Amino acid sequence: MLTPEYLHALHNLPLAARRAAEGVLHGAHASRRKGAGMEFSQYRPYQPGDDLRRLDWRLAARSDRYYLRESEVDTSLVVHLVLDATASMNHQDDNGLSKLQYGKLLCAALAYVATQQGDAVALTVLQPRGLQHLPPRTDSRQLPRLYHTLENLEAAGRFPDAATLAPLTARRQPALTICVSDLYEENGEIEQLLTRLRAATGEVLLLHLMARNELEFSYRGAVTFEDLETGQQLQLDAGQQRRAWQQQQQQWLRETAHRARTHGFDYQQLSTAEPLTQALREFLRRRARG
User: So what's the pLDDT on residue 66?
Assistant: First the structure.
């Protein structure tokens, strides 16, 4: 099992994504998609990054234009990755890995798996200063674009306001939306966004990131906690508060999972100390059901 800290230590997101995906892809189904199958379906104009082996050179010689032959092998799936990059995602686990660093690895691996399945992959990064968005593409340059965006990403600020988020749900397009977030919110804004995304795209898989030091409350002695988004501080004795903290947190997690499923989301809680395998397999299971 490849640990997330090992993958992060590679300092090579494409390699980390490929290594993380190797195990779960073994024996996985390919999707139905337009591709290079045996039964001819249609031509489409060549776009930079397309596989040159699929060019119809005879047609190019006659028309001086480049077209690809497509076959109806299967219908493709649009996979829309939505990554929370607000300041709370800077929370660091005992292994030295932040939620954002884990989220980057997870999104990169999910994109790699989806691409290997023939799916079109999109990425949206949620930040208060504006959305970073890569539209869904299946060409060979999409993964490098996505990796570059993730590699240069830093977490900052609070969750974006409704006006900033509006373009995400303005257009209805069937897709599997995968949201990676710690669900740190003030007034249900993440839940509201995902509800609108489900109405616009049809399917939402929510991957809820939690650090192990949060889940186990592994702190000792007098501790000062600081809210990464508001700067507010709280001082407490970890030993005295551990049991109450864990009880309240478990109650919150149960309520969070229940609300997510009530809204029709697929919900999966993840620890940033665990390998990416669980989330990748959940994606493939969800994809197979669709």
Answer: 78
